[in-house]
Amino acid sequence: MSKNPEFVKFDKVDKSYDGKVLVVKDLQLDIAEGEFITMLGPSGSGKTTCLMMLAGFETPTHGEILLDGNIISNIPPHKRGIGMVFQNYALFPHMTVYENLAFPLRVRKVEKDEIDKKVDKALSMVSLSGFETRMPAQLSGGQQQRVAVARALVFDPAVVLMDEPLGALDKNLRESMQYEIKHIHESIGVTVVYVTHDQSEALTMSNRIAVFNDGKVQQLSNPAELYEKPVNSFVAEFIGENNTFNGEVIDIAKDKCKVKLANSEILANPISVKSKGEKTTVSLRPERALINPTDKMDNMFTGKIEEVIYHGDHTRVRLNLLGSSEFILKVPNSTSNLELKVSQDINIGWNSVDARALDPK
Amino acid sequence: MSSETKQILTTDGIPLEVSLKKAEKKNKIRAFLLVAPLLLFLVITYIFPIGEMFTRSVDDRMVTNMLPKTFKAMEKWENLNELPPEEVYRGFYEDYKLLAENQQHGKLGQRLNKEKNGFNTITKKLFRQIKRKKIDESASLKEQINKIHKRWRNVEYWQAIKRTAPPYTAAKYLKGMDMYLAADGSIAQVDEDRRIHRILWLRTLEIAFFVTLFCFFMGYPIAHLLATLPMKYSNLLMICVLLPFWTSLLVRTASWMILLQQQGIVNDFFVMIGLVADDNRPEMMYNKVGTYVAMTQILLPFMVLPLYSVMKTISPSLMRAGKSLGGTPFVAFWKVYFPLTIPGIGAGCLLVFILAIGYYITPALVGGASGTLISNQIAFHMKTTLDWSFASAMGLMLLTGVLVIYWIYNKLVGVDNIKLG
Prior knowledge:
heterodimer; A: 361 residues; alpha+beta; Rossmann fold; CATH 2.40.50.140; six-stranded mixed beta sheet; five-stranded mixed beta barrel; 8 helices; 23% helix; B: mainly alpha; MetI-like fold; two-stranded antiparallel ribbon; 69% helix; flat
């Protein structure tokens, strides 16, 4: 069975609540069957609105949403067959765990034996067997979360939507749930559309990530590419840490450009700059800059240490470099550690291919 | 040994439990002092009056105290269908003479007259005979008294006196249910054409029930709208719901009278749009329609507010979850939303029903003849007949009725499920 690469399709979708501001602008997004796609973005970027349109609780102002080739804009939510995990789980507080899971099956008039079987299976999938008779209030946050996931999956929906499902959990639980959801997705192969504002969650779980800002998808790619090769300065800033230099392009070749900063020049990789004289923001990941590099690098500068912060597995060093005192370095804590002291001068180097000249901030 | 090891001591050697109690004692006293004024207020204004009402409703000591010798003698009166023996007459004569000397005889006459019509006349006659000293105490008093009036020869009057002997009586409660204690001590029904109280009780229950029902059906959607609308609109709607609270009850009732009367605004409107003919205006007042309309409007906020406070706490994502899981909007409402509002429904219905059962101004003004409810009867006996013990008895019966409803509600829904705000 070949997978449909356009299983869910947003086709030129606009959404406005008040007729004045577009919260989603001309959205074009294809989601493949069995894919785990994450909509990532700051609050108010339109990601939840997209999810609600897909679930059927909001209607697009313009454009169509297609599910497996069929336009679903006029289909009410209960007929779409899309499972959904809500932010606060939305478990029915007056029903037991069993009744919560049986609800989607009962409304589909599934036979009693079949319901029992499916509920059993779904509960064992989230390792909650034996909790059938508990009320949601008797469960911990993590357990409620699992019940919510099991409930969204128990009726074998084609697509499952998750709206910041881990937002209310503490850090450790959140991480273990991330893996659990990822494993469930891998084992049953359902299409998952996941909404979060937590970038590490998105990077951990997804096949592809759609970064939203200002109602638009800024970049849609797999986690590694998103991190390594951000296409604009918003994505570079939103995903992971990043050192930036603002300047003007003074020379440009095919894969290299020279950027003039306030009082120096650096070499960078031209991504969104095309010609001389353009303003640009150069983005460099902290781990791509090395101290006292042994290999030859085409950017070599000397900076002064302003602050050293110990982080356990690594040390962060804040430098005054090229007129900016916000340059961050990440130094892994290994045995061959250098001695780093405040107000010491050190040599820093990086390759121009890692310094991406993006649109100006 | 084991108990010693279990006991945890604080650093200064005092057992932890003792120490904890000591620490909490101050807080407990403070908490008690804070509620003490309210407690005192409740005892004085609520528990004490109810106790007083209860004693008043069963108290029948007046005659018992007035006729001690009579009742003592009556213990030997065996055949109740024949006139009592001489001792009873003598006892009654002596008691009555004493009362006459103390100017108390009039009260007794009135009290006995309530028990059996015609007593007032014959006791007054007896009084005049005593005053003129026409009674020879050495002769048979039975014969002399029987001669004063033929009613003294009627055994029913003596039976009536005997009925008043016990210091406490349930007669008022029986009267409230159109029953009475017959001469032989059994409970009998009042003649069918004189059974007014039962009709009133049933009418009160009926009106309270339907008003509750109407309030529920009108209040539920309003409360839902209030809980789901954006703040801007819900505040306005809330003001509309609460507006009746800001107007005096009498003014509101009067305005309903203006609206609903035959030449009133509503009827004028019906005629104008051609719904009814001008000479055939429907009666919407001085019947149950008027009572229902006015009471529903007045009691609606008591239904809306508890419902609203419950609905406000129900997350909108629950309905969405219900729908996304495949429930039609109706199924999602019925299986998810509605069960969660039951605490509010319970509180609202209980509140409206209890208030409606004790209502009397509104139904009396707009309800006409059919607007007399049990509360009107209580007020009537309080103010007009001055039969306070009967009024107390009916008040207590009403209270008991409310408690029974509360008990049934507790069995069905559970009091823990009530949510008033």
